[in-house]
Amino acid sequence: MRAAVFLILTAMTLIPLGDSAGKVLSAHMGVSSYFVAGSRFAIGAIVAIVIFGTQGLRLLSNWRVWLRALPLVVGINAILIALSTAPFANVFAAFFIGPLLSYVFSAWLLREPVSRMQSLLIAAGFIGVLIVVRPGPDMNVGMGWAALAGISYGLYLTTARWLSTLAPARDLLTSQLVIGAMLTAPVAWLHLPAPELQIIPPILISALGSMIGNLLLLTAYSMAPATRLAPLIYFQLVSATVLGYAVFGDIPDGWSFAGLGLVLVAGLWSASLGNRRARG
């Protein structure tokens, strides 16, 4: 269990690190967010095929696998656009509407069991997201993109649960990266950056941080029950806040800190309730 915890905490650091490199590219180096997304999928697909082989490619003939990958493609593009214009930690707080919506979608579409207390905590987490996003005429447009990324991620998590028994997780990961590369390649090609050596390191960090983070996540989930590891997913908010300050000097204001705290507490509490129910 300790090894699984170490792996998932490392994963929850590497994934925001990859996104911070994406923000450096789009917000500070003038590289299109569409190219960053396309390069992330392309490099990730190549690495996945090298590590796992081509077994996942057989899934490309299944329409459900394409349906699973579509919200991920939308989500990755949306979060990279959001990061180019909005504070790092705030984007991640809005993005965490995804796990909250996945709870609702899974109960509604997949008929998964729910509890009243967990439903109340999900509602509290949603309020936390609203505090950070602060929808209205003065809302940062980047936070709208972050919310879209979160909604897409919630749909992705729901479809991932729906198809979890279709194939091994590594084959599903390979297929979604290949589909993502195929769908984003035309737009990424139209937004090719100038060939400068200085953009190569952040491109690689963006792609490999996300790829390795997801590999470690898959490995951790193969070593310990998902219900035991689920609360640790929220460590990503802590990593995003620290990285946002260390790399970009972003310091959330009082309201944003309050919203971040509410999302974190509600998420951890809800996950712990699911953990107890699974054990009992």
TrEMBL record:
Pfam families: EamA (PF00892). The keyword Transmembrane applies. Residues 4-133, 142-266 form the EamA domain. The chain crosses the membrane at residues 30-53, 65-85, 91-110, 117-136, 142-160, 172-192, 198-217, 229-248, 254-274. GO terms for cellular component: membrane. SUPFAM superfamilies: Multidrug resistance efflux transporter EmrE. The keyword Transmembrane helix applies. InterPro entries: EamA_dom, EmrE-like. Keywords: Membrane, Transmembrane, Transmembrane helix. This is EamA domain-containing protein. It comes from Litorivita pollutaquae.
